[in-house]
């Protein structure tokens, strides 16, 4: 390619290769067990694959409606109403998206402009900040306590200013595996009273929650539902992260504005997959059984680590488990994670990169959405450290 000497002024000067990519490459290079990035290493239900094939054969191969296939939106509305008691109009208050990531990016793009502040709770999943910054917004951080990952609502309240446009929450929480309680949701609701602040509630792990705990969806709370986009992901729920299929639900006036951006961004999501998911959702056990499925995997992982030197608080939700390695070494988390993958063939994610100011409490995140055999091999290695 002939070189043209142009000056590129990056809109995202801070963005570098992510830790997920780095760890993924290292895992491949060293033939390591990869518990870093969050995706299952087992197959989805074959009947779901059959439904997609069938839909393709039936001719659902052209553009889907902009907001999503109506049967799917109806199924999403029915599911939310049944689980959380909130009715969203499938016609005007639910949109099917290319994964939760696109829903989040589009919401931020539709509402956040130059100088608008967006409160992000750290440690945070990595797609929020670049989406805010590329739109000229300013992320404002509230750091969770790094021991129990609880939020200090007084600190949160102190970050609200007249420029606060949006708040992003995530429960069950990646990477910590904690969840927001009912009290947390009520505190959030109270903090936002008498403001126009919009909320993104990232609930992609809503069906992965353990020990009988309940998912507190923002949609359950009147004062939150009226200002919130709830974002979901079929990728997480049905072991199909590669299909990139999600949705958001929100009040009509917010959704109207969302769709103005959505239609010129992606227009619509995969047609055949939407048809298949509409059928698959008819059986509630397909998503209600997930808590138990992943709880067994979490317990297998924890049991395998019970004689290890890691200090562990069992994850309450998501398919991630944090481990504290202070009794093994005082190396920085990125150094230890790299040593684990290169010398012990096991890949994880160091947590400091998710925190404000790179706070390093010597925590690693392991993904347990893996076959039992993989988890057993992984814990055998980790127990010997
Ligand atoms: C907290 C959180 N939000 C959103 C996503 C992205 O979901 P999707 O794959 O549906 O875009 C992930 C994926 O890891 C996540 O952990």
From TrEMBL:
Alphabetical list of Gene3D superfamilies matching this protein: Aspartate Aminotransferase, domain 1, Type I PLP-dependent aspartate aminotransferase-like (Major domain)
Keywords: Aminotransferase, Pyridoxal phosphate, Transferase
Gene Ontology cellular component list: cytoplasm
A single MF term (Gene Ontology): pyridoxal phosphate binding
Ranges of residues in domain Aminotransferase class I/classII large: 32-380
Cofactor: pyridoxal 5'-phosphate
Domain of life: Bacteria
Family from the record: Belongs to the class-I pyridoxal-phosphate-dependent aminotransferase family.
Protein name: Methionine aminotransferase
Organism from which the protein derives: Arenibacter echinorum
Lineage, broadest ranks: Bacteria, Pseudomonadati, Bacteroidota, Flavobacteriia, Flavobacteriales
């Amino acid at each position: 390619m002939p070189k043209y000497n142009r000056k590129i002024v990056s809109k995202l000067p801070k963005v570098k290769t992510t830790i997920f990519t780095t760890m993924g490459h290292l895992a491949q290079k060293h033939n390591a067990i990869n518990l870093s990035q969050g995706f299952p290493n087992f197959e989805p239900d074959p009947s779901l694959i059959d439904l997609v094939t069938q839909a393709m054969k039936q001719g659902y191969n052209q553009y889907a409606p902009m907001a999503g296939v109506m049967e799917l939106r109806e199924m999403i509305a029915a599911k939310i109403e049944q689980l959380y008691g909130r009715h969203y109009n499938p016609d005007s208050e639910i949109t099917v998206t290319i994964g939760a990531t696109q829903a989040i990016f589009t919401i931020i793009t539709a509402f956040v402009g130059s100088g608008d502040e967006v409160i992000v709770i750290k440690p945070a999943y990595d797609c929020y900040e670049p989406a805010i910054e590329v739109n000229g917004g300013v992320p404002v951080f509230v750091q969770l306590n790094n021991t129990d990952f609880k939020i200090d609502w007084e600190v949160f309240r102190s970050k609200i200013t007249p420029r606060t446009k949006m708040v992003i929450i995530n429960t069950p929480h990646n990477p910590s595996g904690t969840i927001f309680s009912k009290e947390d949701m009520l505190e959030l609701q109270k903090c936002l009273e008498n403001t126009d602040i919009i909320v993104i509630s990232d609930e992609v792990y809503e069906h992965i929650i353990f020990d009988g705990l309940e998912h507190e969806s923002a949609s359950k709370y009147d004062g939150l539902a009226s200002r919130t986009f709830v974002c979901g992901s079929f990728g997480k729920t049905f072991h199909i992260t590669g299909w990139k299929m999600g949705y958001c639900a929100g009040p009509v006036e917010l959704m109207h504005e969302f769709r103005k951006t959505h239609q010129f961004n992606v227009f619509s999501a995969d047609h055949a997959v939407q048809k298949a998911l509409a059928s698959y959702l008819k059986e509630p056990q397909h998503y209600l059984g997930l808590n138990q499925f992943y709880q067994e995997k979490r317990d297998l992982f924890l049991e395998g680590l019970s004689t290890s030197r890691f200090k562990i608080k069992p994850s309450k939700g998501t398919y991630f488990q944090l481990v504290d390695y202070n009794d093994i070494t005082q190396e920085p988390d990125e150094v230890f994670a790299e040593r684990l993958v290169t010398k012990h063939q096991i890949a994880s994610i160091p947590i400091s990169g998710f925190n404000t100011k790179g706070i390093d409490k010597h925590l690693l995140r392991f993904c347990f959405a893996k076959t039992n055999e993989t988890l057993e091999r992984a814990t055998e290695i980790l127990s010997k450290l």
